[in-house]
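Protein Entry — a single chain follows
Fields — amino acid sequence, structure tokens
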Amino acid sequence: MRNEFDRIKRLPPYVFAEVNNLKAKLRSKGKDIIDFGMGNPDMPTPKHIREKLKATVERPGTGRYSTSKGINGLRKAQAAYYKRRFDVKLDPEDEVIVTLGSKEGLANLAQAITSPGDIILSPNPSYPIHPYGFIIAGASLRHLLAMDNGVFNPELYLERLERSIMESVPAPVAVIVSFPSNPTAQVVSLEFYKEVVKIALKYNVYILSDLAYAEIYYDNSPPPSILQIPKAKEVAVEFTSMSKTYAMAGWRIGFAVGNVRLINALTRIKSYLDYGAFTPVQVAAAAALNGPQDCVKEIRNTYQKRRDVLINSMARAGWKIPSPKASMFAWAPIPDRYKDKGSLEFAKELMLKADVAVSPGVAFGEFGEGFVRVGLVENEQRIKQAAKNIKKLLL
């Protein structure tokens, strides 16, 4: 009997597990851990969405299998959202598919388009599913340094991107872009996307864009979509999610839109793997997209208030954290006195001595070392308490 499995062996130790195990151990001893570690929305799903779910569940036949590509009404609602938000026209039949969250969509697309030995270009640091979804599928990775001294430099990144494509043998199948970024909260302009599309068209490389934080932005600066660029649909597919926009993380509804060939590939492989999300959940998701959007603004404002409290209170505690322009995270440099210990040891020390949980930057790739990710998932009072605890640690 085989004791080891090749795909599992290709995955590195899961750093999050070490942090989460310590958190669970401390909580079992009665510790109140203020948890900024996971991007898990704590706000309730808006009432009109919950009510739509309840009403739909009561209809006869709603417990039957759904359809893996998503019900027509939800795909039409997503197309309408793209037209309204980005002025991008999508065919709901051929250019939109519903996924069980953007994470599942990315992982299944990796399975659909990847052969062992294929090259994928992925940013580093990066949300783990971006590189590891392709590692699981058998691909080889080329990491693109995404930060220079804690800052994203678009010109340098584009130079690295084109150089990596030119130097890769065989030529890469796809490049992953993710803005607003998880974990770094960096944002980009349409001009940046224009250059990425130009490079992809030049070298016949697909673009996989993760736009999960499209509606979590601050200071009136809505993030763009790569599909706003002319000819982008010739090479690009984009993933979005209901999780953060409508506080629906546990509902597991996301989308992939764009390039017909990639959407068809994802549709084909999903048809073998699932029957789609529970139909009432999809109906409620359509109601969210088609209904009043005041709730989105309220959720965004809540995150912005938390961001401001976090940045100001941590500064008073002696920890300077750059203010993110978007996403539900702050990308925080480790205080100088902890630089030599690294992000994992700093995260452990915060839990053990300050009752605060964060995600170590090294969990998002080796180039994330020296930073931690702080989620805006605790209320303002608990953020202030965390700052008081950390101030004692830093004294």
